[in-house]
């Protein structure tokens, strides 16, 4: 991987994760108690021995930048030329902000060129999966490809949510179909499934850079890899599919786009379950993050009706469960749940205080929220909608200034795509 440069796209607005993305970029949203979403892809990079990574940020990136600076820049050996480096929009070759995934890379074309990589690996910072990019590079070299894109087998009923890739038996890509309503295509690797793009692209640099420059000059282009760059290269260069090899050590492939509140919630609930599909405890594929200095979690009081306990839950450092019961939940650092309260199927971000006699179910509590004694959330959706943000599926999201979010946006943002 020494001749490969990773370019991680982390500048999306994340509108479908609103209000969690009102003040932070989507890749900076907490995940699984200790982590941020971007940590999953960065861990894949380190575990794949990819140690030259640019992170392209744009939207409300302060907390993301701080997280990368304090948790990731020291992971690589800078004295050996390794780096994990943030590249904010510099408008060096354009007066615009990033206008698409391809334009984001094009606007950093000088930074890419200065590293003189043989290959460029385009990644996204908002998916949950485990993948060895070194295996993809080996496949790319063995096939003699100019471009390789990672594909994932999906059920034919899901094609409207994905870019569908038409793959020949040789593994060569012969067509693209962007989110079709239905398709008769089937994967040559699995006759019951369809090959979908994972948004992971490996280019020979001498193919990528001219394509980006040509696309930048096209006023009709959406400046997007899936819509423009890849179709423009099809038939002119060798383009192969790489069928996703999951490092998660489970029977089923695990790849999740956590771009909606419900998908994000479900992925966290899986991690808190007895036998999670996505395994955070695999020492062969460690997940890294910024380590913060908090004391150990503590559970206090054992009186009848006032016992501090957590069942089927993740409880991070700095938490105190004081005479309360936590079930099927994920608690980030520095959370206090006070006596006689009950949490069920809830995600709690850091620095939250939940008062006594609270009852909370199927909710996401954003950081720095202080819930007063007797607060009830998740038991009456009509009442919740008067005070909090509620999705069509009944998931309640509570932010510091939650009273501002009565009917804040249309439900269109919350629909899966």
Automatic annotation (TrEMBL):
<keyword id="KW-0321">Glycogen metabolism</keyword>
<dbReference type="GO" id="GO:0005524">
    <property type="term" value="F:ATP binding"/>
</dbReference>
<comment type="function">
    <text>Involved in the biosynthesis of ADP-glucose, a building block required for the elongation reactions to produce glycogen. Catalyzes the reaction between ATP and alpha-D-glucose 1-phosphate (G1P) to produce pyrophosphate and ADP-Glc.</text>
</comment>
<feature type="domain" description="Nucleotidyl transferase">
    <location>
        <begin position="6"/>
        <end position="272"/>
    </location>
</feature>
<dbReference type="GO" id="GO:0008878">
    <property type="term" value="F:glucose-1-phosphate adenylyltransferase activity"/>
</dbReference>
<dbReference type="GO" id="GO:0005978">
    <property type="term" value="P:glycogen biosynthetic process"/>
</dbReference>
<dbReference type="Pfam" id="PF24894">
    <property type="entry name" value="Hexapep_GlmU"/>
</dbReference>
<dbReference type="InterPro" id="IPR011831">
    <property type="entry name" value="ADP-Glc_PPase"/>
</dbReference>
<dbReference type="InterPro" id="IPR056818">
    <property type="entry name" value="GlmU/GlgC-like_hexapep"/>
</dbReference>
<keyword id="KW-0547">Nucleotide-binding</keyword>
<feature type="site" description="Could play a key role in the communication between the regulatory and the substrate sites">
    <location>
        <position position="97"/>
    </location>
</feature>
<comment type="similarity">
    <text>Belongs to the bacterial/plant glucose-1-phosphate adenylyltransferase family.</text>
</comment>
<comment type="pathway">
    <text>Glycan biosynthesis; glycogen biosynthesis.</text>
</comment>
<feature type="binding site">
    <location>
        <position position="163"/>
    </location>
    <ligand>
        <name>alpha-D-glucose 1-phosphate</name>
    </ligand>
</feature>
<comment type="subunit">
    <text>Homotetramer.</text>
</comment>
<keyword id="KW-0548">Nucleotidyltransferase</keyword>
<dbReference type="InterPro" id="IPR011004">
    <property type="entry name" value="Trimer_LpxA-like_sf"/>
</dbReference>
<keyword id="KW-0320">Glycogen biosynthesis</keyword>
<keyword id="KW-0808">Transferase</keyword>
<feature type="binding site">
    <location>
        <position position="98"/>
    </location>
    <ligand>
        <name>alpha-D-glucose 1-phosphate</name>
    </ligand>
</feature>
<keyword id="KW-0119">Carbohydrate metabolism</keyword>
<feature type="binding site">
    <location>
        <position position="197"/>
    </location>
    <ligand>
        <name>alpha-D-glucose 1-phosphate</name>
    </ligand>
</feature>
<dbReference type="InterPro" id="IPR005836">
    <property type="entry name" value="ADP_Glu_pyroP_CS"/>
</dbReference>
<feature type="domain" description="Glucose-1-phosphate adenylyltransferase/Bifunctional protein GlmU-like C-terminal hexapeptide">
    <location>
        <begin position="295"/>
        <end position="398"/>
    </location>
</feature>
<feature type="binding site">
    <location>
        <begin position="178"/>
        <end position="179"/>
    </location>
    <ligand>
        <name>alpha-D-glucose 1-phosphate</name>
    </ligand>
</feature>
<feature type="site" description="Could play a key role in the communication between the regulatory and the substrate sites">
    <location>
        <position position="58"/>
    </location>
</feature>
<keyword id="KW-0067">ATP-binding</keyword>
<dbReference type="Pfam" id="PF00483">
    <property type="entry name" value="NTP_transferase"/>
</dbReference>
<protein>
    <recommendedName>
        <fullName>Glucose-1-phosphate adenylyltransferase</fullName>
        <ecNumber>2.7.7.27</ecNumber>
    </recommendedName>
</protein>
<dbReference type="InterPro" id="IPR005835">
    <property type="entry name" value="NTP_transferase_dom"/>
</dbReference>
<dbReference type="InterPro" id="IPR029044">
    <property type="entry name" value="Nucleotide-diphossugar_trans"/>
</dbReference>
<dbReference type="InterPro" id="IPR023049">
    <property type="entry name" value="GlgC_bac"/>
</dbReference>
């Amino acid at each position: 991987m020494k001749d490969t440069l990773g370019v991680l796209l982390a500048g999306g607005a994340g509108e479908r994760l609103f209000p969690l993305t009102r003040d932070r970029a989507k890749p900076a949203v907490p995940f699984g108690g200790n982590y941020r979403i971007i940590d999953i892809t960065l861990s894949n990079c380190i575990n794949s021995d990819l140690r030259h990574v640019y992170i392209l940020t744009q939207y409300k990136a302060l907390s993301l930048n701080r997280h990368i600076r304090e948790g990731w820049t020291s992971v690589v050996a800078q004295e050996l030329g390794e780096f994990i480096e943030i590249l904010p929009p510099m408008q060096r070759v354009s007066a615009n902000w990033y206008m698409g995934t391809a334009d984001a890379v094009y606007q950093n074309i000088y930074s890419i060129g200065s590293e003189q990589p043989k290959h460029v690996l385009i990644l996204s910072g908002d998916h949950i999966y485990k993948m060895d990019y070194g295996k993809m590079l080996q496949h790319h070299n063995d096939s003699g490809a100019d471009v390789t894109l990672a594909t994932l087998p999906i059920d034919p009923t899901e094609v409207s949510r994905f870019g569908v890739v038409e793959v020949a038996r040789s593994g060569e890509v012969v067509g693209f179909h962007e989110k079709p309503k239905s398709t008769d295509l089937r994967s040559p690797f699995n006759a019951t499934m369809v090959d979908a793009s994972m948004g992971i692209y490996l280019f020979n640099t001498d193919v990528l850079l001219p394509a980006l420059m040509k696309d930048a000059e096209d006023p009709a282009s959406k400046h997007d890899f899936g819509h423009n760059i890849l179709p423009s290269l099809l038939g002119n260069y060798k383009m192969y599919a790489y069928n996703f090899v999951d490092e998660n050590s489970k029977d089923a492939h695990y790849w999740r786009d956590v771009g909606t509140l419900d998908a994000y919630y479900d992925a966290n609930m899986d991690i808190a379950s007895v036998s999670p599909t996505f395994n955070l405890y695999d020492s062969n594929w460690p997940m890294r993050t910024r380590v913060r200095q908090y004391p150990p979690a503590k559970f206090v009081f054992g009186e009848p009706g006032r016992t501090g306990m957590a069942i089927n839950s993740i409880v991070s450092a700095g938490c105190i469960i004081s005479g309360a019961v936590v079930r099927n939940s994920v608690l980030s650092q520095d959370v206090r749940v006070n006596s006689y309260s009950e949490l069920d199927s809830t995600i709690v971000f850091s620095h939250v205080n939940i008062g006594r006699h609270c009852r909370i179910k199927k909710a996401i509590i954003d950081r720095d929220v202080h819930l007063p004694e007797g607060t009830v959330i998740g038991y009456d959706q009509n009442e919740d909608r008067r005070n909090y943000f509620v999705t069509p599926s009944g998931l309640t999201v509570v932010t510091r200034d939650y009273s501002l979010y009565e009917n804040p946006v249309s439900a269109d943002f919350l629909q899966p795509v």
